[in-house]
């Protein structure tokens, strides 16, 4: 069993563009109202990601932590 569901951005996209009220959309997607408000706020980011990404539900994200290479000599090969 996967740790988290796949295509989470697809679900966010559907929740953001849904024409239901916030309460109905939250019940439909089994999330809280605050989550629906956050998805709708991020709707512009999702629209931009659809243009740039190969899959319209995939938004490339920036890494939150710097990536450190443990053995840099192995990276130069």
Describe it for me?
This protein has one domain (1-58). It is 53% helix and 0% strand. It is built from five helices and no strands. α1 (8-17) crosses α3 (33-41) and α2 (22-29) crosses α3. The longest helix has 10 residues, at 8-17.
Give the structure's gist in a few sentences.
Helices cover 53% and strands 0% of the residues.
Rg over CA atoms? 17 Å
Low-pLDDT stretches are: none
Tell me the span between the first and last alpha carbons.
36 Å
Number of strands: 0
Estimated structural class: mainly alpha
Binned, the helix content reads 40-55%
Number of helices: 5
Categorize the overall geometry: elongated
Mean pLDDT: 72
Secondary-structure element series: HHHHH
Counting structural domains, the number is 1
Region (Disordered): 49-77
Features:
5 helices, 77 residues, elongated, mainly alpha, 0% strand
Detail the topology: elements first, then pairings:
Blueprint: H1 8-17, H2 22-29, H3 33-41, H4 43-52, H5 72-75
Helix pairs in contact: 1-3, 2-3
Region (Disordered): 49-77
């Amino acid at each position: 069993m996967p740790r988290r569901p796949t295509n989470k951005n697809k679900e966010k996209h559907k929740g953001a563009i849904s024409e239901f009220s916030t309460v109905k959309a939250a019940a439909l997607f089994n999330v809280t109202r605050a989550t629906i408000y956050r998805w709708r706020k991020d709707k512009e980011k999702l629209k931009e990601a659809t243009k740039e990404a190969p899959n319209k539900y995939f938004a490339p994200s920036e890494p939150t932590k710097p990536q450190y290479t443990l053995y840099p000599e192995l990276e130069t090969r």
